[in-house]
Amino acid sequence: MLGINGPEFLLLLIIGLLVIGPSRLPEYTQKLANIVKEVRRMASGAREQIKEEVGIDIDEVDWKKYDPRQYDPRRIIKEALLDDDTKPVSAGAPAAAATAVAASAAAERRPAREVERLADGEAAPFDSEAT
């Protein structure tokens, strides 16, 4: 409560009793009680106004859905990487064998990659401006 612990609160009460005095203490206690009642009334009125305008009760709202911690990118990526579920294949998808045949046919259509080799003892090309 406002960063005040128990002993500090008691000290403030004692100082308040000394400053106010025993003759005016009941009057100020009644004023404090009225302020607390008014704040509670205002809070309940705000709750009712929200319920009327929005159409939902605050107690019925699923607050976990609005928690920003659920959108932490690190957690999302971690869950995606650790997720072992595989996506189902539709019934009209080709079988694995047909896919393998199509992949080998595509590999045959590509031209062979030529690799140039250096002669024995020949130095590799060096670009002095590269870095």
Describe this structure in words.
With 131 residues, the chain is mainly α. The protein has four helices and no strands. The longest helix has 30 residues, at 25-54.
Main pleated sheet: none
Radius of gyration: 38 Å
Indicate the mean pLDDT: 79
Distance between the termini: 62 Å
Share of helix among residues? Answer: 40-55%
Jot down its keywords.
131 residues, mainly alpha, 4 helices, 0% strand
Helices and strands in order, then pairings?
Elements: H1 6-20, H2 25-54, H3 73-82, H4 96-109
How would you summarize this macromolecular structure in one to three sentences?
The protein is mainly α. The protein contains four helices and no strands. The model has no long low-confidence stretch (mean pLDDT 79).
